[in-house]
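Let's sit down with a protein and look at its sequence and fold side by side. Which protein we use is up to you, so please pick one and set it down. Label the sequence line and the structure token line clearly, so we can match residues to local backbone shapes. Go ahead whenever you are ready, and we will take it from there:

***
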Amino acid sequence: MIPFTIDCRPPFLVASFFEPHEMLSWSLTHPGKSIAREVAWIEVRNADLTVNTDPVALVKEKIAAEGLEDAIALMTSRNITRYHTAQSVVESDIATCLTTVGLSNGERVGMRIAEPVRLPGTINTLVHVARPLSEAAFLETLSIATQARTAAIIDAHVQRAGVEVTGTGTDCIVIAAPRGEHRAPFAGLHTTLGEAVGKAVYTATAEGIKTWREDFDALAASAANR
């Protein structure tokens, strides 16, 4: 059972927990560690992001108008109705992933691709684990989620300007865990928690890449036929 509700009402996609959770992210509105009950995706278009637009102010204005001021906010140009979920259970550990995937502005780590971006895109990922995490486990879970997302991209061999990408310049990950005692001390690749997180994120990201490719190819074919 998914531990949060999903409300897709474009331009918003909202994941809501039944009680406040500890979260770690580099969200535009609540970067770092925070307590929240909601994670909100906001779909924007090129017209929303002019040269003079402050993206942080834009996000805050939009979520305030929707009554989501306390949500961890994620901004994307990806069609938010094309979201994907995956859950993995390894022994007593459960990890759940909700993600939207776009790679049209893909980049390769360690270099910046000079080719202009035709269509913006990004990967925004929420990862929930079913037990409280220590500070170290939060950071390790973030690391595992990043590895899994990147592994899915590498395995898909997505290219831009002839270069295989490893992500985009605007990807964001949110780790959510319940509050409480008996925190998991670690979450490395060798742990059941790390295995569950890795599998859930990899599966959801791989499915998202497949859907994005289908959508991107259909859009390109439509443009070519005009």
Summary: The chain is about 30% helix and 35% strand. The first strand starts at residue 5 and ends at 9. The mean pLDDT is 93. The longest helix spans residues 192-224.
